[in-house]
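User: I'm putting together a small comparison set for a docking exercise, and I want a reference complex before I start. The sequence is below, and the ligand is LLP. Could you produce the 3D structure with the ligand included, as structure tokens?
Assistant: Of course. I'll restate your input first, then give the structure tokens for the complex.
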Amino acid sequence: MDHFLYRDGALYAEDVPVAEIAAAVGTPFYVYSTATLTRHFKLFDDALDGIDHLVCFAMKSLSNQAVIKVLADAGAGMDVVSGGEYFRAKAAGVAGEKIVFSGVGKTVDEMRLALEGGIRQFNVESEPEMIVLDQVAQSLDVVAPITVRVNPDVDAKTHAKISTGKKEDKFGIPISRAREVYAMAAKLPGLKVIGIDVHIGSQLTDLTPFEAAYLKVAELTAQLRADGHEISRLDLGGGLGIPYARSNEAPPLPSDYGALIKRTFEDLDVEIEIEPGRLISGNAGLMVSKVIYIKDGEDRQFMIIDGAMNDLIRPAMYEAHHDIVPVIEPKVATAPATYDIVGPVCESGDTFAKSRAMAPVKADDLIAFRSAGAYGAVMASEYNSRPLIPEVLVNGDQFAVIRARPTYEEMIARDTLPHWL
Ligand code: LLP
């Protein structure tokens, strides 16, 4: 469920007409709904009600300062994967003890930043990383709380580019070597082992792979405890998928996912952490764009819009489907037209949809990409020297620009000429 609905023939973001935002900020832009963000966070939080838990929002999916603040105010912790994300979380007022540091290639500088600013735990992904973290912690005279990310070799049955829990993936240490690696960690004075971490992929539409991975983690918990390790916290990653097409069957609900977690871990007396990103932010955002031209090709019609692959790369990168709807509600009886929906960037990959049937539109009409909140703005670039598009946050009947569109001057201001030019 989201808060982008037609009302009186026009698309609204909560209580604000999308066209009103377009008139104020220009197109293209992202718009996020506070109510959807907090609703989805609460669904997870409620799903784990009754057990000790923390829902850490995967900031990589959407990391605008205002969004972090909304979720942190609702009670969320944060899952960060870089010094930049850590910095963002702290700048939005998130306490160090609610920030989890994930990622396969943490640098010394990133470790230092987090150890100095405070951290809930590092999810360590390899032995070399463990050795470096131990040294950094010792040099600062602190002890770094860690989990080790295990790779359970489970097929998440999702797009190959976002599957992370198979042995051929770069993530975590093989679960078969876990006891060895924990034994090594226990000997390092700069580290304190507190738990286990697992994350098998993103956009999972079935609970079976989660169940397979989680059963392995439950078994490992018992083994590691028998080996004398303190396992008091399990980080179960993110990955629950969302329905990108309204016509599709919906993936499992956070409540089903929560029931699975409770069923698997309830008797283990552990604190549970999860790191959802997409399910919280995905349906909380639209990308709104304007039709520039309708162009007749030899055998098809191209809808050329002012948004492009640099603004929303998911269709080009993962062949991802996003529902695309006109901002003016089509009349029920309108016969659909069929379009290839493309952006202005100079490559054929700049295609959002092929042969997409939708209500006919014309130049200057507004259209909205649904489910664009997650991995939208955060993956944008300035390719073709197209300035990053603005982000807007709606809350009831108010809206605010939470990242302004840079001017061309601002865009090029980061370039500098060497002294010989
Ligand atoms: N935790 C870890 C360690 C992760 O690597 C990820 C996502 C998450 C949590 C959050 O997963 P989520 O709940 O959002 O599925 N750009 C791709 C998705 C990349 C996901 C990367 N890792 C896309 O647009 O589909």
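The chain has two domains: 4-31+282-412, 34-280. The CA atoms of residues 127 and 184 lie 8 Å apart.
User: Thanks, that's exactly what I needed.
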